[in-house]
Structures are given as C-alpha cells and as structure tokens.
Amino acid sequence: MKFLLGLSIICFPLSLAAQRFGGNPPSLKWNQINTDTARVIFPRGMESQGQRVANIVHYLNKNTRSSIGNRQQKVSIVLQNQTLISNGYVQLGPFRSEFFMTPSPSSFDLGSLKWEEQLALHEYRHVLQNLNFRQGVSNIASYLAGQLGQAALTNIAVPNWFWEGDAVIMETALSPQGRGRLPAFFDGFRALTLDGKHYDYMKIRGGSYKDYVPNHYELGYLMSTYGRDQYGRDFWKGVTTDAVRYRYVCYPFSQSLKHRTGKNIRAFYNAMLQHYQPLWQQYAAANNTPATALNKASRIVTDYRYLYSTGNNQWIVLKNTYDHIPGFFLIDTQGNEQLITRPGIQVDDYFSYKNGRIVWIQARYDARWGWKDYGVVKIYDVNSKQARTITHQTKYFSPDISRDGQRLIVVEVAPGQDSRLRLLNGNTGREITALPNPNGWYYSYPKFTADEQAIISPVRNKQGQMAIIQQSLTDGSTSLLTNWRYDVIGAPQITKDTVYYTAAYQDVHNVFALTPADGKIFQLTARGNSALHAAVDTAAHQLAFTEFSTKGYQLYQTSLPATGWKQFDTAGNAHSPWQQPDFKEGGNILGKIDDKHLPVTTYHKAHRLFNFHSWIPTIDDPNYGITLYGDNILNTFSSNLGYSYNYNEGSSSIKANIQYGAWFPFLQAGTDYRINRSTRINSKGDRLYWNEFNWHAGFSIPLNLSAGLYSRSISLASNYNYQKSIPQGNFRFRDDQIQYLNSSFVFNNQRIRARQHIYSHFGQYLLLQYVKSITAVPAWQLYGRLDLYLPGILPSHSLVLQGAYQQKDTMRRYSFSDNFVYARGYNDPFYQYVYKAGANYHFPIAYPDWGFLHIAYFQRIRGNVFYDYSQAFDYRAGRHNRFTSVGGELFLDLKIGNTIPFSFGARYSRLLDTDLFDPSRKQRVEFIVPLQQLFSF
C-alpha cells in the first residue's frame, strides 16, 4: 500500500467539498488586494466585498492572536461568486482560503450577519490555527513533506472539533451574533439531554448511521467554550501547542488535557456535559407547552420540515429519513402518510404550498464549470400529478405561489450578493416585475399577503439584524412590521390578518404570531427545544409545528385558542447568560474596523502556475520514491515532479506531469524517463538492461449533467502516448518504440442516496476504453464495463449487476494495462477476448457504533453475496474456458482516529469451475481494501 495514499486520505476529507479543478469559465476576470497580510482575490464587480474582507483580516491579524499564537504568514483568499453554495474553507497544499459568497437563505443554521464578515471572522481563525500549529514535530513534517505533511500531522494531533469549535468561538466573540448565539446550534445536544441519551465520546466524534449525533461544530464549540470558562482564555493555546509538538507521543491532545486538567479527553467531555445539561433541563422544565405527536414513532431518524395546512386536519411536509431520500408527504392527525412526490437535488430544503400546488427550488449545474450553478423553480400540481420546471439558469431562492398559481414571488441573489424580490409568471417563469431594494436588505422566505397585494418577508440589514417587513407589489414601498434585532427569524405563514413565524427570541426557537395592523407579537409555544417550522389550521383551531428530538425534527400539534394569546415583548433580553457569552476578545469588532480603501490591481491568472507546496514519499514495494506537488491558487493548474527507485530491477525513474483546467477541455501532458530497466534472460541470472522514455499528452472533458433525482456525469478523454526503449548493450528490441492513443468514455448516473443506502437504488455506470497503436507495432485493446444499481428487499439493501467485456490483439508484441474485473477467486486467464456477468446483493448486518483506544471507530458491518459467470476464449487452444464462482464478502466501515473514513473486508470465493493455473483450488479467501470508496460521493 502506498504511503502517499495514506497521507492523501488524511488530508483529502479536509477539503473534499472545496476541490473543483478549473471551476470558473475563462471569461471571469479577477482583481486583487495584495498586502503583507493577505492577497484577497475576487471577480471584478466585487470590490466592496474584497475591501471588507481585507480590512477585517488585517484587524484580526493585528489584534486577535493572543489566544492562538503570534506566527505570521501571508495567505491567499479567493472569493467565489458563481456558486449558490454558502461555505468557506482554509487548506494547506497549497495554503489558501476560499469564500463562497452567496449567503444562506436560512438564518437558523449560520445566522444573519453580513456573509463576508462572518466568513472572514471564522475562516481567518483557521488561517491562524494552521500558522501556529506549525511547531515541533509538525514543523519538522512541514520541512520533510511540505504543507501536506504539516496538514497530516496537525490533523492527527488536534481533533476536528477543536478546529471548528475555536473558529465558531471567534465568530461569536468578535460579532454581535455568531453561531454561539443561535438556539438551533444547540438543539442536538439539548435533545440528547432531554431524551436521557448519553453517547460516549467516541460515538460523538465518529457519528452514526442509525442514531442522530451532533456534528463536530456543535461539539467543538461546547468543548472549547467550557475549556475557556474553566481554565482561562489561553488554555487551548497551551493544549494545542503540546499536541502539535507531540510532547506526548500517544494521544497528544488527550494527554495534554490530562496534564493540564487532570482529565483525559473522555473525562473532559463528560465534565462539559455535566456543566451544560442542568441548564437545558431547567429551561425545559419551565417551558412545557402541552402538545401531541402528529407522526407515528419511528426507529429511523426522520426529519419533518416546512409544513403547510391543507385543511381537514391534514398537512403537507417535507420528510427526510436515514433510509429514504426526501419527499413531500401528506400526513393526517392519525399519523397516516402518503407520498406526493420527491423534490430531487435542492439548493436548500425550503418549499411552499398553496391550493394544490407545491413550489420549490431545484439545483442545476453548468455542464463544464464546476463553480457555476443555478436555482430553478419547480412546480408540482398535486391533482394532475405533473411537475414543471419554469425557469432555467436562474439564481433563485425561497419561492411562494399565489392562490390561483398565476404568480410567483422569488428571491434572486446576484453574483455581487445583491438580493431582490422578483414577481414571476406562474406558467412561463417570465419576470413580471422586480421590486426595489434601496436599503440593500437580504430577503428570506417572502410570502404573499392574504389579499396578494403585498409581500411579507423576513429581511436582514447590513448590520446583520433581522426584522419582518411588508412590501407593496404596486409601488414597491416598504413598512417595518417588527423591530430590528440580532435574533433570527424563520419562514412565515400568513392566515387572514395574522403572520405566524418562528424566531430565536429565547433560548430555543418558538412559534409567534404577529398582527400587522397593530404590530403586536404573541407567543404561541414555550417548548424545551426548538420549534423551527409552524402552520395553522384555522378551521380546526390547531397549530402544528416541528420540534427537534433525537429522532430528528418531529411533528407536534396543539390547540390554538381563539382569544387570550400571550403578548410577547421582544425589547427585553430573553436569553440566558450562557447564550450571551462574553469571551473577553474585545466584543463586537465589526463596527470598529475602519473601511480603508486598499489598492486594487488586476490578478493575472498565470500568477505562480508552478506553485509547489508538498513533497510526498511513495512506498509501494518494490517502488520507493518522492514526488513534488504543485497547484496554483485559482486551482486551474496542477503539476508534479517525481523520482522513484524500483528495488527489483535496480532502475530509477524521473517523471513530470502537468494539467491545465482553465480552458475547455482540460489539457494534460507528462513525461517519464526510466534508467536501467532490466529483465532476467536465463537461469544464470544474466540480465538485459535498457532505458525507457515515455511521453504523453491529451485532453479530457468532464461534464456535470446532474438534475432532479440524479447525480449525472459524462467524461470524455483521449491521450497520445509515445514510448521508446533504448538498449544498453549489444542487443536490439524487435519493437523499440510504440505510439498509441488511449481514449475513454465514462457515463455515471446515480439516483441520490439516503444516509443508510450502501449504493444508489437506481443507477448506471458505463465505461468504454479503446487503446490502439498508431505505429507499425500491431497492438490494440477494447474494454467495456456496465454496472447497474437497483433497490434490494429492504430500504438499506442494494442489488448491483455487473457486466464486462475485453478483447485484445493476438500478436503479443505489446500489452496494455489490464483493468478487467475477472471472476472472483480465479487467477487471470489467457485469452483473446473475455466477458463476465456478475450479481451482488449488498446489505447491512449491524451498526455497532463502537471503537477502541480512539484509533478505530466501527460504524457499520455489511455483507455482500455474489455470483460471477465468465468465459474467456483461448485462441491458442481454440476453445472457451468457463469461470463461475459464488461467495460472500464482509466489510467493515470505520473511521480511523474517529475522523478518516475507511473500509476493509474479507472475501470467500467458491470456485465452480477449474482454475487453469491452480486446478486443485476450489475456494479462496482474500482480504480486500476498496480504496476507491474513500474518494466516492
């Protein structure tokens, strides 16, 4: 096994979602703000965001280092504006950060702060972490293996929860909001506490296929905050310094904790829970509005979101479970559920419903440019059971539909972050009018008023505060219905003269009602955990809402009295002190930072194309080598230089490769010169020696055609290869050179999967490859493979059918690489052509959620029973040889160090025919490591 692969596995999950090689079209022009602290690179038209990011980063670099360290290095920050993803990351290899500049339409998950400000606060903390974790052994690794070497050592030493928890602390400490002040951020741990479930530290770190487990952001914030509260502001600087220096070789982070607190990592986690759990329990005991469950109890984690009343005590909801993909369902008060349709790949999970029509935003992708995606409007008619896509290549969010279905209101977010409401024709998708937005608000979840003459919408202002506004469809004028607050507001629903919505006015989200006529706000629920979505059946006087539990967002119903509602005063501070943290970091800095105008220049795409950052050793016995890797900051050019030594032959190899992804198609080229290749020619040990020169160049066209329920891609590639053998001695090769073309076509179409699905329930994978000499050397090879993915008996089962065919020339003057999937259990046969058909039935056996010594955490044990049938034509003997086998495979899906996904297993094959190279063998046991799963989506 390659050491290079092991190191890549450690680093790869850290930036998987971030890697989109050649993601932007060449028409996109870039500018930069280049200072001694950061190079902020942004598309033209985003100068204001670039200036703001640069000013915040300079302030953070100068004033917020004391709790992490004083090491400094310039970082490149790229602002991406073509994607609707709301995210950001910092990575090593190369050292850079990317901000995805479209704000999230939901404020519950990430908050309502101005998006580039929150990204700068959070992501620059990761910059400082990476800089200051380069110490001791981790620093040595950075010299021995470059940036990826440092990344490997620091991510082993410091758990992922600390990286994110410490960054969430910064976004909370240095702003008036941040996730540390969002009630929904604590719903997971609060639910575990209220349901009396205590998962051990390894399960909280490793996650689960069967149970809900809070993520590492939530764990990290609570652990990091508890450490600061109990041991001081600089406590974690000491712990992480010990860890990255490997002062304690075994469990460096846990051992440092033990040294400083007397508690190892597990005891520290338990102490954190003992600190916070009483606060959650006390709050829940005092907030217990009675309600009854709408959905039937399920052993599978299930989320119900965004419900709407259809009358007659029936509700439409979006349901998502661990064993089924999301779907819109009709549910009644007895818990009966009926599937309506499935939304497919969504930009976000919001939808709207009115008078038998469901409307939502579905994701679309530019076929070629990975950073360019869209949100298009889908409408489903419940009565006719027909779905329509009415917009194309639009960037829309949060649609609402009029009662007659003739009009839609949507939020459009332009690449420059400008947000505005657009009124569309409900049949054609064409724009009727665009409402003005002179205040620069960011709209979320707009709704038609009862008379459909205006829009009511939560909005965020430039300071990150939220309010509910009403905007006229006639003249665009606006009026403020609630006061501006940093408390986040959810999707409203309007019934007659009342606006129902959820908001974070307290320690948890609750349901409130607003009467626009007098501006009064009434509290309708007081629950122990967050109620995020609500709907009203006025005829039945019932309020339905979703509340988070250890089984996901569950549905509840309570009576809605006609009078006597409890008025709520938002002016008071209704949050407990623990949810208004004071980290003594200087408080809200966003209003203190001067917006200096920094010089803006053109950023040339050819800047530092050869940006070498890491040199990684390769150990793949008998080959030993080292490779120097390079990637430019815009991720459009990749390069590597390498040397390897083959112990068996005593030969050396020098190689170089480049790939360019800024054009259409991708271009690649490379060369490999091998010295002193040899082969034994007799029993005396005499050998022939030669040198070998290889050169290749070609192109590839990766296309993303994903839409609806399917993740779909096509890849076309062709490469020219030249190989020449140079004899060392008095002999000649019959064929001392060969030139050939290697062309391939790959089609992959996979229905989206639920969490427990091992494989897609419907999909196809097709590979066609043709390799042919273009010189006098007669050599060619044709290979084809087709995999079909089908559902099994139970939702988590999968049936996979496989077929493959390969044929090659019979001259045997040159042999190409062999990728055929032979019948399991047999040695590779001699053939002119071979084909195979196989059947696999995959199923889970158990979800142990168990680990040992913080080294390996086992999430799933799964099995596969298979049957293979193959025939190969032996042209020398003029006959077909049959190879059939049956057997089983057992796989263990685990996380190494509670972080790195890994799978391995064993295979038993029963041979039903004779293995021509081992006639006495009737069975075979093999160990298998399906490394490709580490890189699959």
Going by CATH, the homologous superfamily of the domain at 292-561 and 573-579 would be TolB, C-terminal domain
The top level CATH class name of the domain at 292-561 and 573-579 = Mainly Beta
In helices, the fraction of residues equals 10-25%
CATH architectural arrangement of the domain at 292-561 and 573-579: 6 Propeller
Largest sheet: 17 strands, antiparallel
Estimate the strand proportion. Answer: 35-45%
CATH topology assignment of the domain at 292-561 and 573-579: Neuraminidase
Mean pLDDT: 93
Low-confidence stretches: 1-17, 931-937
Can you give keywords for this protein?
single chain; about 950 residues; alpha+beta; Neuraminidase; 17-stranded antiparallel sheet; six-stranded mixed sheet; 12 helices; 49 strands; about 40% strand; globular; disordered N terminus; disordered C terminus
Tell me what you see in this structure.
The chain is 17% helix and 42% strand. It has 937 residues and is α+β, with helices and mostly antiparallel strands. The strands form 8 sheets. The chain has a 17-stranded antiparallel β-sheet that branches. The protein is globular and about 100 Å long. The relative contact order is 0.09.
Write the layout of secondary structure elements.
Elements: H1 3-11, E1 30-34, E2 38-43, H2 47-63, E3 75-80, E4 86-91, E5 96-101, H3 107-110, H4 115-132, H5 136-157, H6 160-173, H7 187-194, H8 201-206, H9 216-231, H10 235-245, H11 252-261, H12 265-286, E6 292-293, E7 302-311, E8 314-321, E9 324-332, E10 337-341, E11 346-354, E12 357-365, E13 373-381, E14 386-389, E15 396-401, E16 407-413, E17 419-425, E18 431-434, E19 442-443, E20 447-448, E21 454-460, E22 466-472, E23 478-480, E24 493-495, E25 498-503, E26 510-515, E27 520-523, E28 531-537, E29 542-549, E30 552-559, E31 566-567, E32 601-602, E33 612-620, E34 623-631, E35 637-646, E36 651-660, E37 666-680, E38 687-704, E39 710-728, E40 737-751, E41 763-773, E42 780-791, E43 798-808, E44 833-846, E45 850-852, E46 856-874, E47 879-896, E48 900-911, E49 923-928
Parallel strand pairs: 2-3, 3-5
Antiparallel strand pairs: 1-2, 1-32, 4-5, 6-30, 7-8, 8-9, 9-10, 11-12, 12-13, 13-14, 15-16, 16-17, 17-18, 19-21, 20-21, 21-22, 22-23, 24-25, 25-26, 26-27, 27-31, 28-29, 29-30, 33-34, 34-35, 35-36, 36-37, 37-38, 38-39, 39-40, 40-41, 41-42, 42-43, 43-44, 44-46, 45-46, 46-47, 47-48, 48-49
Helix pairs in contact: 1-5, 2-4, 4-6, 5-10, 6-9, 9-12, 10-11
